[in-house]
Amino acid sequence: MRSVIRACLLTGLPVSAAGMAGLTVLLTAADLPMRLYPAAACIPLLAGCFCAGFSAGKAHRLHGIRCGSLSALMLAALWYAAACVAGGTMRSPVQLCILLPAGAAGGICGVNTRLPLVKRRTHLPARIRVRTALLLRHRPRREASAETEA
Which residues make Cβ contacts (< 8 Å) with residue 120, sequence separation at least 6? Predict the structure, then answer.
């Protein structure tokens, strides 16, 4: 569950917030009718839910659909609550029908990505340590010379 929350807050929320900021600039520059604003606002949310699902699936490495859907649900709930507070009225959560599959698709993609290759550790340092320890411990025996025996 921790990976889902972390993915939602650290990946999905910044991606969707940056998308909303970019969308605000675009909608301000283009003179579009007001009825297109909710549909246009769904695009950054889709991107944020996909990215949140992707990072949750990649972090958890199991159950991509569940992790992605939960992270998308959390992100959609955050934006839904913000829209209700900013608007002052309750709105219908119709966007969940679109956002949950996007998060699930991101979770599936995140689980199926390859892990980065790990450098194989050679045992050369261990072999060197063992060899030097053996060499340091080895002391040649002094052979009894003829002088000491006599």
Answer: none
Q: What distance in Å separates the CA atoms of residue 106 and residue 112, rounded to the nearest whole number?
A: 10
Q: Domain segments of the chain: what residues?
A: 2-111
**Which residues make Cβ contacts (< 8 Å) with residue 77, sequence separation at least 6?**
none
Q: What integer pLDDT is reported at residue 30 of this predicted model?
A: 83
Amino acid at position 146, single letter: A
Assigned token pair, 150: 């006599």
In three-state secondary structure terms, 1 is coil
Contacts of 110 by beta carbon, 8 Å cutoff, 6+ apart = 53, 54, 55, 56, 57, 58, 59, 64, 67, 68
Structure tokens at 94: 């119709």
- Of residues 129 and 26, which shows the higher confidence score? 26
CA distance 66 to 87: 31
Is the distance from CB of 58 to CB of 110 less than 8 angstroms?
A: yes
pTM of the model: 0.72
